[in-house]
Amino acid sequence: METMRASRVSSPTRVAVIEREFGIQVDPELVARFGDVIPVHPTQLYEVGLSLAIFAFLWTMRKDTRPAAGWLFMVWLALAGTERFLIEFFRAKDDRFFRVFTLAQLISIVLISVGVVWALRLRRSGSPFPDEVSGQGEG
Fold it and tell me: What pTM does this model have?
């Protein structure tokens, strides 16, 4: 019971917690309008919805195309990175370590880049290692 009471008191959307933990000043108009608890976006629900949409898209692509081994995974990597990059704009935290981007957004950019580059490579060659698959490798 004491834990539940403590978690209500230190809700991450409370003005005091936002100002103490993130070191940012909450707009006084928000406090006047909403009181001590500031409403936030339900980013977990956004992520679930976007992930389900990505799943449905990839499931359909699986049937329509005969992609090379690993191609769908690379497309997923790019789409999941894009999803996380966008969600970070709505999150109620201020951990912008690299100017306007969060660490999660920078990692997302890397994931998107890797996914796109490898998906294109797989699409063109049909395999990430064409010599090994076709049996024309050294040896």
Answer: 0.70
